[in-house]
Specification:
Shape: globular
Order of helices and strands: HEHHEEEEEHH
Number of domains: 1
Structural class: alpha+beta
CATH architecture: Roll
Number of helices: 5
């Protein structure tokens, strides 16, 4: 836990002094595959991919200027679902990039597209992340979190429609 907190703090300090981004921008954050993030095959393990994506979303939130509002309003940003495809390994000690952007939003959910690019800028991992915001166990509408920022409706993408249908199937089984 302490290591995670230190990583988040260092990331935030680095991102704090970087230029702000616009809502529809894509943010790239560079990392390196250190040994403590790798498995016995000497490449980044699947749990660490999710951690790096989380760090990418934190950086995106900060650079968009939303982090202050999130902390001030005591809103929790939560992941409600992930669809991920692992395509290529990320070898130990190699640099890689986490690319993050918001695809769409509706009153309850916002959808991130995140890609991890290897040292040759090839997609190694691709994920759609469904997130929500909560305060006092109640959903905070995406419009309230993002303010006046408008995003496409999730139905505008075939990929998102398929993701949403799969998520609904899973929810029916819970």
């Amino acid at each position: 836990m302490l290591f995670y907190v230190c990583r988040v703090v260092v990331l935030m300090l680095r991102q704090f002094f970087a230029r702000r981004i616009q809502p529809h921008d894509t943010l790239d954050v560079a990392f390196r595959a250190w040994p403590w993030a790798c498995d016995l095959n000497f490449h980044v393990n699947n749990a660490q991919h999710l951690l790096y994506m989380e760090l990418g979303r934190w950086a995106y939130t900060l650079r968009l200027g939303l982090l202050g509002r999130v902390f001030r309003d005591r809103v929790q940003l939560l992941v409600g679902g992930t669809s991920i495809l692992y395509r290529r390994p990320l070898p130990m000690f190699r640099r890689f990039t986490v690319r993050t952007r918001v695809l769409a939003a509706d009153p309850t959910w916002f959808y991130f597209l995140q890609e991890i690019l290897d040292h040759r800028d090839r997609i190694a991992v691709r994920a759609i992340i469904r997130g929500t915001a909560r305060k006092d166990s109640k959903v905070v509408p995406a419009g309230q979190v993002f303010g006046d920022i408008q995003f496409d409706a999730p139905e505008s993408s075939n990929e998102l429609r398929a993701f949403m249908a799969l998520a609904e199937q899973h929810l029916e089984q819970l």
